[in-house]
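Anyone up for a design puzzle?
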């Protein structure tokens, strides 16, 4: 059950990326991120008291809030890294780092010992994520990757790892309250990022975007919140190592939708990455 929920999390995250990516063609990415966090916050604020009427314990809210700070950290450095250097380096570094660190913590700190097919799947998932994310990130900028942009990708990966690890520490009885706490802190963090970046833009830097685009951005955030909720339950009933790796396979969703729906073409690296990732998912899920 935990593995299935982690895959649901990956699907929801992937769909959120697709919707957010489409909206970002007409709206600044940082504004899409802010509206997404707002949409996710509103959705969880409605669902949390209905699904979990009991008041949450303070530790669960603190873990959830820390998770949201990880989300904000990840977004801030991802956006900065993409602005400083090659997106085709920053994105995969962030994606792989966000998986590798929780796996390392799960094995060394939490003492998790999954079956050997799971470890084989984890070993396959990391290069698969690199290949799929690097292929979908587009060509390098003219200036090429810089040491600063790689560092930003690594710090973004740390933020993703904090998001996953902190949320997994919340007690099962806390329900969706940790996700709600995380959306509050993430909204604040992304709001600060949005104000900082938008102030630096010229007045005409953003293309026209209306209520439909704003609603779609909010919908992307609702999907991301659903992904976190599914991951939370998965991490409470499964090894964190398994839940994180399966949930982190979300880059496969935009790649597949791009081919099937949008008629995009995959690079050879992406095709290889998709095949390896599918093998990894099967090994982990069936272990």
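Challenge accepted. My sequence:
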């Amino acid at each position: 059950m935990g593995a299935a929920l982690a895959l649901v999390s990956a699907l929801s995250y992937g769909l959120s990326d697709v919707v957010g990516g489409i909206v970002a063609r007409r709206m600044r990415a940082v504004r899409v991120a802010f509206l997404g966090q707002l949409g996710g916050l509103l959705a969880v604020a409605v669902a949390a008291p209905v699904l979990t009427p009991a008041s949450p314990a303070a530790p669960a809210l603190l873990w959830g809030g820390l998770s949201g700070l990880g989300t904000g950290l990840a977004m801030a450095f991802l956006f900065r890294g993409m602005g400083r250097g090659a997106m085709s380096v920053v994105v995969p570094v962030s994606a792989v780092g966000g998986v590798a660190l929780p796996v390392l913590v799960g094995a060394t700190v939490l003492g998790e010992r999954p079956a050997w097919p799971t470890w084989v799947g984890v070993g396959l998932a990391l290069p698969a994520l690199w290949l799929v994310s690097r292929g979908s990130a587009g060509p390098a900028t003219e200036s090429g990757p810089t040491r600063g942009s790689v560092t930003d990708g690594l710090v973004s990966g740390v933020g993703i790892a904090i998001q996953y690890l902190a949320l997994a520490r919340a007690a099962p009885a806390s329900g969706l309250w940790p996700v709600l706490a995380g959306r509050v802190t993430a909204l604040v963090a992304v709001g600060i990022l949005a104000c900082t970046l938008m102030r630096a833009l010229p007045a005409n830097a953003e293309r026209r975007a209306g209520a439909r685009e704003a609603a779609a951005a909010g919908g992307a955030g609702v999907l991301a919140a659903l992904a976190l909720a599914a991951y939370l339950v998965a991490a409470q009933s499964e090894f964190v190592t398994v839940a994180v790796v399966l949930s982190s396979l979300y880059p496969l969703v935009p790649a597949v939708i791009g081919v099937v729906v949008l008629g995009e073409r995959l690079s050879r690296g992406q095709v290889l990455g998709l095949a390896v990732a599918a093998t990894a998912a099967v090994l982990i899920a069936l272990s």
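A detail worth pointing out: Residues 112 and 239 are 7 Å apart (CA to CA).
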